[in-house]
Amino acid sequence: MQKNGTTRTLQTVKDADGTVTSRVRRTVLPSGLRIVTEDMAGARSASIGVWVNVGSRDETPALHGCSHFLEHLLFKGTPERSAMEISVALDAVGGEFNAFTSKEYTVFHARVLDEDLGTAVDVLGDMVTASTITPFDVEAERDVILDEIAMHDDDPDDVVHNLFAHQAWGDSPLGRPIAGTEASITAMTRAQIHRFYRRHYRPDNMVVAVAGNVDHASVVRQVTKAFGRNDFLTGDATPTTPVQTEKARKVQPGEARTVRPLEQVNLVLGVKGLTRTDPRRYALGVLNTALGGGTSSRMFQEVREHRGLAYSVYSFASHHADAGIVGVSVGCLPGKYDAVLETVRGELAKVAAEGLTEEEVERGKGQLKGGLVLGLEDSGSRMSRIGKAELVYDELLTIDEVVGRIEAVTLEDVSALARELFTQPEMLAVVGPAAAAAG
Amino acid sequence: MQKNGTTRTLQTVKDADGTVTSRVRRTVLPSGLRIVTEDMAGARSASIGVWVNVGSRDETPALHGCSHFLEHLLFKGTPERSAMEISVALDAVGGEFNAFTSKEYTVFHARVLDEDLGTAVDVLGDMVTASTITPFDVEAERDVILDEIAMHDDDPDDVVHNLFAHQAWGDSPLGRPIAGTEASITAMTRAQIHRFYRRHYRPDNMVVAVAGNVDHASVVRQVTKAFGRNDFLTGDATPTTPVQTEKARKVQPGEARTVRPLEQVNLVLGVKGLTRTDPRRYALGVLNTALGGGTSSRMFQEVREHRGLAYSVYSFASHHADAGIVGVSVGCLPGKYDAVLETVRGELAKVAAEGLTEEEVERGKGQLKGGLVLGLEDSGSRMSRIGKAELVYDELLTIDEVVGRIEAVTLEDVSALARELFTQPEMLAVVGPAAAAAG
């Protein structure tokens, strides 16, 4: 590997006149840190994301919630900057600046005017590589996290989706809530969190993605400088390659119920889905769209339009490296619970038995393709596209390739998939007042 | 007035080379319907919004929730299209398509690829001008609305903000929740809703705003055709001019509490604010930003960073034609309630007594200006900017004019405003478990 890393152009997009409208380039530094950029003609903003390959599924029971706790702590200061100085640096330029933790990765991101990108890179590089994590900060932030857990616990939608994941994957890391529990957060020590930080925040486990009005070479220079603090980029390494499997891990069928004195009953009904790299995921995209992805979808039409059973009803498909779930989520008045459940089960059985219509497949494809193109105008979505692909997929498809895969989906593909998925044993999670939630 | 209406260019923006990058134009049709467009160089999408000058504050007690009920019903069909056909038309092209009702206006909006704008205009024109509102649809949608009210009632944040507005403005239209109540929605008849529709959905009470890769003249043609159904555009009228006042109406100081068995206590503490056209609103923007608008703000630093009292803490300023409120919103664990209240009150008293620092004012201005420019990349925000200005303001400022007004704010302006606002008697709304909420 060369001293300054290896650089490659991954994608070039031209418009009808042959003008280059976007170019995706990647540099792998000797330390294994990957930098991907997309320059967008005409953009005035730049979005940056630092993608770290760690999330709640990497946690032992004693460390449950550690990835998310750590995400908070990285905002608390470095030898160079206090928490206030970190905040000030980006607030002063009007940037949007935040972070999130998922089951599989942690992302720190900012959107700024192009001339302020250098500031954003410098602050993020400092935070991510040189956080001090003082005992005082751990204690103050522990209280903040306990409050955040209480807030999620007061949100019926969060409660029912966490319950559904727990039904599916049990007490395994995938089945646990990302933020941890009151017990795990209360017990976690500064030493445990700090070891977790050192183990996972390594250059070969990280991707810096930038999209907007940017120049790749200058981003590489800025990142090399900002992340080069304290010898963070010293040493040679090969980036961690995601371990992918096409077969989704088992789920645990059955019902889980939590009684809460709410006005509504919230329920999620679903089955085992597909992994992130399963080639049938494009067919699942079409199926999910037709089933519950818009106001013309079967669930919306049947549950809300025709029968007035609920305000919020949609289907979803979530994907992980080695697991996936597919389901329908509804909130309804307790008196409508039985009718909702019967309607949702009826629609799932019907699509399993009869598949979709040709018209639904075409509409679903149009909806997916339109959403894809509409999502490309904004530098934040482009940053997410290239950052996530680099971190968790084996490949970055061009937009044309994605459109091609959507177009290649046939009625038979979708109907076969619907039959396979929705004849599996179901999982049900219910949160609400006693009468409905008691089953 | 001419047969085809009067057209005027309101704003032209050029880049450094003199190339026009955006142009805002307005046409007023003889019927009083206003069409404003902004063509954005380089955009591939188009956003359209139909802005109707009606909201919950236009409702008598018997019609409480009617604007929002009506917003739902307009999706249910016309002589030309069923509810399903309305949904299909936009789902098929992948557009985002939705609506919302506020206290003062109702907006139907879509974002589509530029080539699909004609479809969006046609569907929206059909829905808004020719809705059939059948008795069957009223009954099915009544159930959906009752469920939506229950959903809001399970959301602690919605509950506390509704309680705060009720404390401020009592049983007046501004003090009531937008969606109505179970009683008002249950009692409302189809005839009442239909009369409300005919009274408020008139061309002179409506603005069609479009931004993106669009041509003004062709938008005017499309709108004239789509909204010309059933003689909707017949007759001459002058657009309804918003009635603005600079003096905000009185609020009712005091405390309101609702006991709920939640994990968190949610509280909103605030005072009377400014109207939408008050010239001091730019100073209030800076004050609000410094007080609780970002992670470097006083509330975030004091409540969350230094003391770990809460996860979510922010300040807000809401404006109406003749009213306004300013406040701080926090969710915390019950054991921290007293400390939160003391801290928030202490910070408000401090800013009233001492004002801000020069550095905070500069940072606040930078944050407002940065946010403004970052918000201009997307056709949806531009559509909202011109649509809302046309409907509810007397004037559409250029971005440079807005930046100029932000820059003109002085430390003295902000400090004087802080003193005036935060020495007024306070209003407090609290939702949470008995111990804290009982006061």
TrEMBL record, chains A, B:
PROSITE patterns, per database record: INSULINASE
Pfam families tied to this protein: Peptidase_M16, Peptidase_M16_C
A GO MF term: metalloendopeptidase activity
InterPro entries tied to this protein: Metalloenz_LuxS/M16, MPP/UQCRC_Complex, Pept_M16_N, Pept_M16_Zn_BS, Peptidase_M16_C
Domain (Peptidase M16 C-terminal): residue spans on this chain: 188-368
An individual GO BP term: proteolysis
Residues annotated as domain Peptidase M16 N-terminal: 34-181
Family as reported in the entry's similarity comment: Belongs to the peptidase M16 family.
Protein name: Predicted Zn-dependent peptidase
Annotated organism of origin: Nocardioides alpinus
